[in-house]
Amino acid sequence: MASSFCTQANALLRKNLIYQKRNYMANVRLICFPVLLCLLFTALQFLLNNITRGHPGSPEPSPLGLPLLLQVPESRYRAVRSTSLDSSPSDDLPDGYCRVTGTCPVTVLFTGRNRSLGEAVMVNLFPKSFFTQDTFDNWIGPSQDVLGTSEPPPSSSLETINFSNLYSVQRQCPLDWTFPLKFPGHQKTSNVACIQGLSLWRDSSSTINDQLYKGYMKGNRGGDINEITAAYDLLNTSNNNFDARIWYNSTFASGKGGFPALLRVSRSVNMVANAYLQFLRGPETKILFEFLKEMPTNGIPFRMDLSSALGPMFFIWVLLQLFPVVLTSLVYEKEQKLRIMMKMHGLGDGPYLMITYVYFLIISSIYTLCFVLFGSFVGLKFFMLNAYSIQFTFFFIYINLQIALAFLASWYFSNVKTATVVAYIGVFGTGLLGGFLFQNFVEDTSFPRFWIIILELYPGFSLYRGLYEFSQYAINGDTVDGKGMQWSDLTTSTNGMMEVLFIMAIEWLVILCIAYYMDRHLSTGSRTSCIFSLKNFVKKRPPSSIRQTGPRRQDSNVHVQMEKPDIAQERERVEQLLLQHDSHHVVLCDDLKKVYPGRDGNPEKLAVRGLSLALPRGECFGMLGPNGAGKTSFISMMIGLTEPTSGTAYIQGLDIRTRMGEIYTSMGVCPQHDLLWENLTGREHLLFYGRLKNLSGSALTQSVEKSLKDVNLFSGGVADKQVHKYSGGMKRRLSVAISLIGNPSVVYMDEPSTGLDPASRKHLWDAVKLAKQDCAIILTTHSMEEADILCDRLGIFVDGSLQCIGNPKELKARYGGSYVLTMTTPQIYEEHVENMVRHLSPRARRIYQISGTQKFELPKHEVRIADVFQAVENAKRFYTVQAWGLADTTLEDVFIKVAREAEALNVLS
User: What pTM does this model have?
Assistant: First the structure.
């Protein structure tokens, strides 16, 4: 009876929990990563707070005023006519010779919807001329003039001001004009030089943007640096409306030591506002901007929350490292064929996918929960300020998406090492790309929102965008109102969290469906294409278990005519059983054929050539054959690893082409290589597979103990040792016990006694003999002794087809009708020995001769054993007989003879 969905799910869950318990140290190491990162942030935050206490960036009650300056390019970088601006009109720029003389003006670009009004306004942007010595005494300070500097701006008003490279920007400059200037509140006197200001019209804001981009710092990329000081778009400015957009240099945003700099934007705003007022009210109207200073405070030390500032890059690595963990676990089961092993013992796709998914979801949820809670416990603002409900919603959706993505990616990889390397490259690459590329796109308001959404379709960027939003709200909340992201913030246009949640939820469902679809077609390990599967769905075979009567294919008739009598008899027997719907025979192979297509110019390979076979319950059928004969291909078709090219087989009346899922529930497999979990014990393996076979309670316990005793793994505590401590022979015995547990109807054993010592082999054979009373067993082996002891019938398989079939005695009688006489004498008597043998049997054939040792085949119908003994005794009287022996034909002799005859026939054909 097949086990139910719940029974299978329970068996797999118990196995996973045991496996997880054994690997608890791996879980501890996994959780230690975010914990250590949070502790590192806490320690660095403590050091930063101590270092910045009293730092120049720390506010105080009476901060010193900063002069209002215009940020101008250095003389050698100011815009001139150059090929770097060839895509936009630049003929109105000065000639490059001014760089040699150091007289290049600072250029300001402007545009708007009304050019004439714009030109009238911008003519007032710079003062007409500087004052003379007569007016110097009436000058009220730097705010009266447009002063500029090429020095980087300071981090705060507390920082020491560098007043070198000061300029007075005017429409026209006297030759070599400078004057001394002392700023109020500052002790240092500076010399101010005159520099010409040039305002130029451009037809559109895109032209301005093009020139700004091409000019800025292009020298670092191999061209000229052609910097524009600033730019204005007057938009809808008119006599009754002032509307302006300002471009400015924001590259100084990160000042010394990484602290934010005070960008020189205020003077640009003041300049255009004054120009507009003078256009309306005359040249005497001015808004005097005295100085710029920080807001007075009570001296609270400067603080920067590292977890909020650096969180997106580091926390994305914390969350992404779960992806390699899940992926490698899935690929490991695929590489070691453990998934196939479980399926062949009755584990359905549904229970496997559900339990495995939930298993990884629970682990990921616990990991993420520990991450958030510990981060909050140590006081990281990133977690404490943002609403926990939003955080858990975001993390829950993402870990589901990540698990679904791991299921999908697992079908691309077949090697754990490759999957691990690629996954970790993806983890660190995503973090770096998010921090140094994607974040710039998000912060650039001119970057199209459509492309932001396209980039967020990559799950790693979606994760980074969500973490970035959390960090920004944490930074703002820490400095403004003490509150981070709340649900009400998700509706604002600048918040990307709702967009990210929607994208990840949709991707989760889509990827989960695709992964499930691929698993349904590839879970057995066979590379059956989706097209082939759809073709099978469209061309559905008849639902009946045993095929209907009807004429056989023509190629089968031709094949039957060339078969030997015993093979033809077996084929006819199968035909009769199929017509009678016989239920006693567990296995019926009906003209089973497998052809592998040719590759790289090689012809196609016929691995199995129309095999027909009937096995009743209680019979062990042995398949003998040289390597490459097709035995593995036959077994692979019977256990569902590959599709038959033609023909089919029925297991208890169920067609292997259409009902393999039901067949698995009553099947046992002992593969050639042991497919075991290294961290589980032998008892735990048998408990798991026993539950899959619907055993429970005392019946399960008794069955497990019996299986362990049958294969000699019960005593000495061996059953409770982990498999990685087992020897090769112990693993082999455990594989046999797994194949027999649960009383399967058919068992496939591929060389079950390989690597066993004689005592263990004897125990194993006894277990197989006992088990075959209730099932049919198909066994492949290279041990003739094993085949002779275990198998009720044997089939010798050569070049894809059965050459003979029968019980061991029949085969010996049929193909071994001779005795083998071996005699060892001095070499001078070799001819005498041969004459004696010819006298016994004229048809005797010498098959071996070396250094006096000779072997002869004597036909049984020509000699009697008594005559051979008498002849040897007589020979001893005339010459020395060092050793001699007479042996009947062995199964090995039969195998070699049949294989040679078949190979010779194939060569001739």
Answer: 0.66
